[in-house]
């Protein structure tokens, strides 16, 4: 027995780079009983059917049609995985792997073609009802996001997330969604990655690509938070009898200090507060992170502005937004080294943060230019979330590895190492993480990278009329991994 234990200790410390060999052994081989495994997708990335059965146009339909060169490969999501017609194939794939959760998003313009409640597209409502029923029939729990970036173009035409009225439009949309699916769906995400949504306003990274850096991004973020707050309070008022749990899915690259110097540690902390904290602080604690308020106010004043570029909430809004998450949706792909310094457009959120970021050259690359493999970052992030927000119930709502269809074995390594760090966060740091929905079940439309960058554990033949789904090695790896865990559940 002793020899066996010693061998296990050695294996664990070796596979973890030997950075901590004081770990208890058994606890690190398996997740706790009840831990849930699943996978994620987003409407625009998989559905296709861009104008099917009365769907309205989204900002992604529009930008990819008006500016095909917005996508590096000149591709678009018109057909994608055709999940609008083939959702049963997706559920089959989830079931084959043994997934217990499926996190997907609802396309706002598929339900409300012009964004507003006065025109409801019944086939759109039916589509998600069928998907939810198919999942439940297969014992797969849905986690549903109301917004994963595909804003109705009709709402963008009146300012999109820059228009304060959008909070009310979002509330109306949420009302319809909760009313329609609330008895079947218990896990909700209002906004997926608000920090990415704002980059559509503050840069050219995503639709609507307005590039209003340092102004439009703060304003969009402000209205995203107001919209989230309204949707949450609405659920409390009208739908609490359904017993659902609401969250946002938070994101950012985890910011690791580049050195032990206090100014670099402070820069990494600012980096955290300007990404995860920007949205998590208001919904957990009320109002923006104090450091964010201080930096943007100071710079705005120095620029001769009499109003801060970071808008102020009214007290009523703070109260509405404060305490509006029942769980923490944690998206993690990568980390960045962060040190003190000034760079970035003037003005911009990057410049306001006063940091310089880079990737450690030792971190392995992926097919995505923004993802390096840094498994330890997810543990640091989980611990930070625990400390900042009182150890909320947490589900990792995205985590995944991209290749060009050529490095699926490295994908397995990515998941192995990240799952190991999540177990450490649970057992060593006491983080309340109860599940993971990986990105992604199937290869799909990877935004500006089109279909050439693949995150799926299931391959999709985009050239076949049926978009044939084929399990990759990583899918079989997950199948075994989950089956092993089901033995203890
Ligand atoms: C894109 O949106 C603009 C503004 O609504 C509209 O005028 C235009 O026709 C749309 N273009 C396409 C190709 O969808
Ligand atoms: C948010 O709510 C908590 C708990 O009620 C309270 O302690 C805190 O002061 C509120 N935050 C703000 C900014 O009002
Ligand atoms: C800021 O300055 C503008 C233009 O000078 C003025 O119209 C506005 O009233 C000022 N706002 C505040 C809050 O002082
Ligand atoms: C596509 O699916 C249809 C219906 O399931 C089937 O009849 C057909 O043979 C499939 N085609 C290919 C090329 O696999």
UniProtKB/TrEMBL annotation:
Keywords in alphabetical order: Glycoprotein, Glycosidase, Hydrolase
PROSITE patterns assigned: GLYCOSYL_HYDROL_F1_2 (PS00653)
Keyword Hydrolase in record: yes
Record-level GO BP terms: carbohydrate metabolic process
GO terms of molecular function: beta-glucosidase activity
Domain of life: Eukaryota
Protein's UniProt keywords contain Lipid biosynthesis: no
Family: Belongs to the glycosyl hydrolase 1 family.
Subunit structure: Homodimer.
PANTHER family associated with the record: GLYCOSYL HYDROLASE (PTHR10353), LP05116P (PTHR10353:SF36)
UniProt name for this protein: Beta-glucosidase
Organism: Apolygus lucorum (Small green plant bug)
